[in-house]
Specification:
Order of helices and strands: HHEHHEHEHEHEHEHEHEHEEHHEEEEE
Largest sheet: 8 strands, mixed
Oligomer: single chain
Helix content: 40-55%
Structural class: alpha/beta
Number of strands: 15
Strand order of the largest sheet: 5-4-6-3-7-8-9-10
Distance between the termini: 25 Å
Radius of gyration: 22 Å
Strand content: 15-25%
Length: 369
């Protein structure tokens, strides 16, 4: 995973190393601010990050602060019993929607799943032809129509066909531009309604494709699509073609949506699942002397093993709490739900009251195997 991120973040890492050619064990807040801005992290987020850190910042301190950016209240949507599992792919033209759809289809095929494509971008004839070409190369079926025809009808037919034939996946392309923003919004909403009509609960996952070379400006695109339909997650493309890799922090911070995949090259295998820890460590490798992230006492609080999670659950249980998810606990006596987080140093779990103060904390040493 690290090698993939190093490939994808090559230009970002080079820009950081040009600004700070000498790696060190601690970095001043002032220099760190410049480095984060160089990587295209939004100024407002940089200020918040810097304000939370001491004057001299260690790798572990920065790791825990940056990785927390990818903590979301929105759950990741993964396929369950849906047959087919329907994904609706949205984004502006040029972001890499069609290529990403092809990479997803290849990925699913490699997993032994049967995939069907739906060409619902009927606004552009070229979009239909491009997706048809990919379908032929990948040897997957596709439902399409002529330019100008009803895109929601294509979505309906694609889902209906997949249901009848027992396919596991349907991936539906959509237009990235119409005559007006309002037209695009209404079209996407209609497609969502028709998908649900074809198969209750569909589309099961609505994915926004963002062009990584756009940097923090991609945030505005994302907000526009989020207002049109309720986006469930993001895929970042062309990460290997930009020195603006730090924008992923800003995108995650602004949108509070899971990043499912990142594109780090042209090949099908270059669409990789996003791993926040690997991403942050690749950035930190360009700044700090340490080549590996050493978790205290062998416990990486952000990536617990099954055994470590069981120990944390036992500690919580003894205090009357149940672990609901990675980020939330419930108190059995009151039924109240509280947030659980890792502190800045990464050495304690903290249960936070709604007012923000710490109700209870647990030393990560207690989880050591």
């Amino acid at each position: 995973m690290f090698s993939f991120f190093k490939k994808g973040l090559k230009k970002t890492v080079e820009r950081i190393e040009e600004s700070a050619p000498v790696k060190r064990e601690k970095v001043s807040k002032e220099e760190l601010e410049d480095l984060l801005l160089e990587a295209d992290v939004a100024y407002e987020l940089v200020e918040r990050v810097i304000d939370s850190l001491p004057e001299q910042v260690t790798r572990l301190q920065l790791y825990n602060t940056l990785v927390s950016t990818f903590t979301y209240d929105v759950p990741r949507i993964e396929p369950a019993d849906e047959r087919p599992f329907v994904e609706l792919i949205v984004g502006v033209n040029g972001a890499g929607k069609t290529t990403t759809i092809a990479k997803l289809a290849q990925r699913y095929k490699n997993e032994g799943l049967r995939v069907l494509l739906g060409a619902s971008d009927t606004f552009r004839a070229a979009a239909i032809e491009q997706l048809k070409s990919w379908a032929e190369r990948l040897d997957v079926p596709i439902v399409y129509t002529k330019q100008g025809h009803d895109p929601s009808a294509v979505a309906f037919d694609a889902i209906s066909s997949a249901k009848a034939k027992g396919f596991e996946r349907v991936i539906i392309d959509t237009a990235g531009r119409l005559h007006t923003q309002k037209n695009l919004s209404e079209e996407l909403k209609k497609i969502v309604r028709v998908c649900h009509k074809a198969y209750e609960g569909a589309p099961h996952r609505k994915i926004l494709i963002l062009d990584g070379t756009q940097g923090t400006s991609a945030v505005n695109q994302a907000k526009a699509f989020k207002e049109m339909i309720d986006i469930d997650g993001i895929i970042i493309t062309k990460l290997d073609g930009t020195a603006k890799g730090g924008a992923l922090f800003s995108i995650a911070d602004e949108l509070k949506l899971p990043i499912y995949y990142v594109g780090v090259g042209e090949k099908a295998e270059d669409l990789i699942p996003f791993d926040a820890s690997a991403f942050v460590n690749t950035i930190l490798d360009a700044i700090y002397v340490e080549q590996t992230q050493e978790a205290p006492h062998g416990v990486d609080a952000h990536n617990l093993t099954d055994a470590q999670r069981a120990k944390l659950e036992a500690l919580l249980d003894a205090d009357g709490f149940d672990l609901l998810s990675k980020h939330f606990v419930t108190e059995r006596s009151t039924g109240e739900t509280y947030r659980i987080q890792v502190n800045t140093l990464g050495d304690r779990f903290e249960i936070l009251a709604k007012e923000g103060h710490v109700l209870k904390s647990y030393d990560t040493r207690l989880l050591a195997e």
